Every structure is written in structure tokens, then in C-alpha cells.
């Protein structure tokens, strides 16, 4: 049975913008830019958490949903500064990013990422697990890095949980640098990730998982990354804070719904 796969476009705002008023302006401008669109893509924004409830009020018409940039591995308790998955769900958050390289840089290990992923999918929200190498060496060690990050994350994840999983290939060298992976590099890694998933879960199980790309996605490279890289969508940092550019990436992605 074939099914329609909608591109998944997630804006990761990181620790930006500085005020709620500026965050609201970005969402309002995105709404204006998308007005009248009958688009296929699923759109999410991962803003700083203090802004979520106010932004949700603004985001209705164009069906923008919200994601979290991180989540605690614990359910609740004495974890100062952490935010739990039940809290996120109670304010309408649908997805949580886990293992972003900026968190891994701060000391998060593959095992910690795995614990967070379990917490998210155990609560039936969707986990966007980020994997990616720090550098592209000429011996291909980047495959080993991605394989080990991904297989640790997938340990004990059951096939029926895969509908709650998205894999974001985010080569660290491409994040915020203006140097994106080429569409060919994105395609190669997408195939590699798909093979890992297929080896563990079979073709049907693996087809549940969207594989998206992140790292210097802009409106001038999005089309090739979709067309040649065949990725299922994007995790977008810098360009998602620019309403005009984010809207134009969404409109490009709208053309790339596919059948799997
Ligand atoms: P960038 O960030 O689009 O600014 O490179 C991507 C990310 O960190 O998810």
C-alpha cells in the first residue's frame, strides 16, 4: 500500500529571539506569508519554551505546531532547570528534538540521548533524534559515527514505536556555517540511515521513519536537497528566524510530497 509522505519542516529557533514580542512578530509574519496556501508540508517551530503558550495562540490558521528543543530524560522530580515530557505535552507540544549537536557539545552522550528518546516515544510524542559527524574525513569514518549514534538510540525501540520517530541528519560542520552538505552527500547519508533502519526493522518498519536534513538549509539550496537528496524535510536553524525565508522554504517543500 502506498501512502503520501508530507515533507516535515521544523524551525529550530535555539536561544532566539530575545523577546516574546519579536517571537510573535516572526509567527505573525509566517502566517501572513502562508496565507491562502494549500500546502502539503507539516510545519513545526521549536521556540524557546517560555514563548510557546503565547505563540500557540497566534499559530492556528496555518496549522503551525510546536516542538521542544530538548527534554529531560526524567519524568519529574528534583532536576533543577529541566523540563519534562508531560509538561511539554500539557502545553500542546507534539515533538521533541533530542541529541542536537549543541547539546552533545555540552556533554550529552549517546546514552543520555537514548534515555531522552525513550521518554519521548514512551509518552507517544515524536522524537526527532539528531545524528551527524563533526567532520568529513576521507576514510569515511563519518558513517561509523552516525551508525553508532543511531544504533544506540534505537536499542530496544520497537517497530510499533517507529511512527513516533524522525531521524535528522545534521552534520556538525554544516550547522550555522553557511556550508551545507551537498545534495549528494545528504542522499548518501539518507540511504545509509535507511539501510540501518531496514536491517533492524525491515522495509515496512523503516518506511515509517522520516529522515530529514539540517545544516545551513536556506531558500537557495532547499530544492536540490529535496530533489536530489530525497530527504523528507528539514531541521532549520538560522533561516527559520527569517519569516520570509522560512515561508519560501515551506513553499518549495510543498512541491515535494511523495508516495512511499
Ligand atoms: P542552521 O542550524 O540551519 O542554522 O545551520 C540547523 C540546526 O542546528 O538544527
Task: List the SSEs and their pairings.
Elements: E1 4-5, E2 8-12, H1 20-34, E3 42-46, H2 52-58, E4 64-68, H3 85-90, E5 95-98, H4 101-105, H5 110-122, E6 126-131, H6 141-154, E7 165-169, H7 183-206, E8 210-214, H8 222-227, E9 233-236, H9 243-254, E10 258-259
Parallel strand pairs: 2-3, 2-9, 3-4, 4-5, 5-6, 6-7, 7-8, 8-9
Antiparallel strand pairs: 1-10
Helix pairs in contact: 1-9, 5-6, 6-7
Summarize the structure.
With 260 residues, the protein is of the alpha/beta class. Helix content is 39%, strand content 17%. It is globular and about 45 Å long.
Task: Write up what this structure looks like.
- The protein has nine helices and ten strands.
- It has 260 residues and is of the alpha/beta class.
- Helix 1 (20-34) packs parallel to helix 9 (243-254).
- The N and C termini lie close together (8 Å).
- Bound molecules: 2-phosphoglycolic acid.
- The site of 2-phosphoglycolic acid (PGA) has 13 residues, from strand 9.
Amino acid at each position: 500500500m502506498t501512502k503520501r509522505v508530507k515533507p516535515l519542516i521544523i524551525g529550530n529557533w535555539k536561544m532566539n529571539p530575545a523577546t516574546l514580542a519579536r517571537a510573535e512578530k516572526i509567527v505573525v509574519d509566517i502566517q501572513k506569508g502562508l496565507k491562502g496556501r494549500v500546502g502539503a508540508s507539516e510545519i513545526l517551530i521549536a521556540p524557546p519554551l517560555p514563548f510557546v503558550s503565547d505563540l500557540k495562540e497566534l499559530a492556528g490558521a496555518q496549522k503551525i505546531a510546536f516542538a521542544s528543543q530538548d527534554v529531560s530524560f526524567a519524568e519529574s522530580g528534583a532536576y533543577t532547570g529541566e523540563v519534562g515530557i508531560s509538561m511539554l505535552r500539557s502545553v500542546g507540544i507534539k515533538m521533541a528534538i533530542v541529541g542536537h549537536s549543541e547539546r552533545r557539545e555540552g556533554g550529552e552522550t549517546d546514552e543520555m540521548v537514548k534515555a531522552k528518546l525513550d521518554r519521548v516515544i514512551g509518552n507517544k510524542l515524536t522524537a526527532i533524534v539528531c545524528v551527524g559527524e563533526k567532520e568529513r574525513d576521507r576514510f569515511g569514518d563519518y558513517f561509523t559515527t552516525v551508525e553508532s549514534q543511531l544504533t544506540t538510540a534505537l536499542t530496544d525501540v520497537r517497530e510499533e514505536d517507529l511512527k513516533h520517530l524522525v531521524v535528522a541528519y545534521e552534520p556538525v560542520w554544516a550547522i550555522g556555517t553557511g556550508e551545507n552538505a551537498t545534495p549528494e552527500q545528504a542522499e548518501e547519508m539518507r540511504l545509509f540511515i535507511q539501510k540501518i533502519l531496514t536491517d533492524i526493522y525491515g522495509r515496512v518498519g523503516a518506511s515509517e521513519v522520516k529522515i530529514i536534513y539540517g545544516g545551513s538549509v536556506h531558500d537557495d539550496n532547499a530544492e536540490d536537497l529535496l530533489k536530489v537528496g530525497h530527504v523528507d524535510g528539514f531541521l532549520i536553524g538560522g533561516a527559520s528566524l527569517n519569516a520570509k525565508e522560512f515561508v519560501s522554504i515551506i513553499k518549495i517543500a510543498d512541491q515535494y510530497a511523495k508516495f512511499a
